[in-house]
Design goal:
There is one protein chain. Helix content is 28%, strand content 38%. The protein is built from 5 helices and 10 strands, in the order αααααββββββββββ. α1 crosses α3. InterPro entries: Cro/C1-type_HTH, Lambda_DNA-bd_dom_sf, RmlC-like_jellyroll, RmlC_Cupin_sf, TransReg_Diox_bact_type.
């Protein structure tokens, strides 16, 4: 069974891989995912998880929004975690992505380091969140905001109650 979002994302991954002259094996190895899994993603037989998409962004050298072809309203979800692309702004200097996050209470979203120079910002709308990045940690409550270098391992956890937040990711060109 295939889904239309899976087919579109898979086609985008395949196009980016081909543009960069990467074989299926080379991209799978660089992203740390199985070659069979990547093949199923590219053909739309498997829906991508957020972890898988983030694993592919580094080796492909693109922001997450690129993998959903910058389509506003695109949803990427894992258990207890959902993100919706609200807006993307692309300039010669950077790509800025604006995502709405919904995270169930107690769920932690872990992310490997993004490309050099990437910065994330989070503004909490409801709930509270702890962000850990590198050796630093910050707690953000309703109405609060934090920014951190996302080119280091980082994670955020919905503390106490469900979290709703705006996440802005700025990737230098």
């Amino acid at each position: 069974m295939t889904s239309q979002p899976g087919i579109a994302v898979g086609a985008r991954i395949r196009a980016l891989r081909t543009e960069r002259g990467l074989s299926l094996s080379a991209l799978a190895a660089a992203a740390g995912i199985g070659k069979g899994s990547l093949s199923e993603l590219e053909t739309g037989r498997r829906n991508p998880t957020l972890d898988t998409l983030y694993a592919l962004t580094g080796p492909l050298g693109v922001p997450l929004a690129s993998l959903v072809d910058f389509r506003e309203g695109s949803v990427v979800a894992d258990d207890g975690f959902e993100t919706v692309l609200l807006h993307t702004e692309r300039t010669a200097a950077a790509t800025s992505e604006v995502w709405l996050l919904r995270v169930d209470a107690g769920v932690t979203r872990t992310s490997d380091a993004h490309a050099p120079g990437v910065v994330e910002q989070l503004m909490v709308l409801t709930g509270s969140c702890r962000v850990d990045y590198g050796d630093e940690s910050v707690e953000i409550t309703v109405g609060g905001h934090a920014a951190w270098p996302a080119d280091v391992h980082h994670r955020y956890t919905a503390v106490g109650t469900d979290l709703k937040a705006i996440n802005v990711i700025v990737t230098p060109t």
